[in-house]
Amino acid sequence: MKIDFGKLKRTIMLQILLILVITLLVGYFISYVFIDGVLQAPFADWFIRFCENVLQLDYFSAQRAYGILFRQNKSLWLAIGLIILLLVIFYFALSRFTKYFNQIAIGVNMLSEESNQEISLPSELDFMEKKLNDAKNKLEKRAKDAQEAEQRKNDLVVYLAHDIKTPLTSMIGYLSLLDEAKDMPVDQKEKYVKISLEKSYRLEQLINEFFEITRFNLQSIILDKESINLNYMLMQLADEFYPLLAPKGQQAIVNIEGEMKVFADANKLARVFNNILKNAIAYSDDNSIIHISAHHQNDQTFISFTNKGKTIPPEKLMMIFEKFYRLDSSRSTQSGGAGLGLAIANEIVHAHGGTISASSNDEKTVFTVMLPTLS
């Protein structure tokens, strides 16, 4: 973006012109008063007395020295006086110019010190004021977002740590009973073993979520791209999620006209679709249909997941792709994940040069992934 220095240029030019005008006026005043004006005679008398008393010259010699030094070199003395005057005035003018740098330095210090005050500069530096305040606002937002994400992560870790104790306590309890009651009936023993196994799976899931948090913070996404048959990938996805869909009477239907391909990392793209579909299943109404569709447009591929369920408020739509954000904060870790699924999907899609977005109203919620068709 081109910066408009117009106001600053005009201010500096006016100040330079003012310096020149003041210099000429003062120079003309000196010339008129001291050399050819009202103070010429007093100055000449003072110079002659100085020569007579200090330099011990006679009156005529002193008068001749005054004529040689001043009367015959008026232009030289005027030029010297104007140069000295110009340097003095220019020095004071530079002091004024350096105030601009001081003001900018103060603004930069306020930026680095994370001051709560708005940065204010002279009107001729309004472009710099705007840029500094924009940078300040962006840094404040990033710091706030990072702090909120860190707080959400810390809260989640506390929840996970608490929830780990529940299945672990149950496992210890049932295994202790199995260990103590050697003659326990077979049916009861099978029941206790089954419960312990279920708790073990839950414990494994919670531990995996801990690893997911750490891995997401440390990972750098490296893509291994290839040509992918999108039709096959989405159909396979819908089939794989049947065990999660069936208990709630839900269906995932893929609707794509013709064969469609994208150039992407198959494993990571599958993870994106898994995370989006998993989220759609969790928040869809019972006995509803999740529609999966795709189409090409202007060298871009759009893949949409549409479900009927609870409307997502606009303020939450802005945050659902952030780390550790869980749409329904009331959902415990028993029913909700680490809040990383959509954030990871967002990172992977951006690594492919695409975008991911969401919209929601009373009728439907739509997640849309845009990918370059060829990249």
UniProtKB/TrEMBL annotation:
EC code: 2.7.13.3
Spell out the reaction equation it catalyses.
Answer: ATP + protein L-histidine = ADP + protein N-phospho-L-histidine
Q: Which EC class is this protein assigned? A: transferase
User: Which InterPro entries does this one have?
Assistant: BphY/WalK/GraS-like, HATPase_C_sf, HATPase_dom, His_kinase_dom, HisK_dim/P_dom, HisK_dim/P_sf, Sig_transdc_His_kin-like_C, VanS-like
Compartment annotation: Membrane
Which residue range or ranges hold the Histidine kinase domain?
Answer: 159-375
Q: Which residues form a coiled coil?
A: 125-156
What's one Pfam family here?
Answer: HATPase_c
The UniProt entry, under PANTHER family, shows: PHOSPHATE REGULON SENSOR PROTEIN PHOR
Return the protein name: histidine kinase
Name the gene behind this protein: vanS
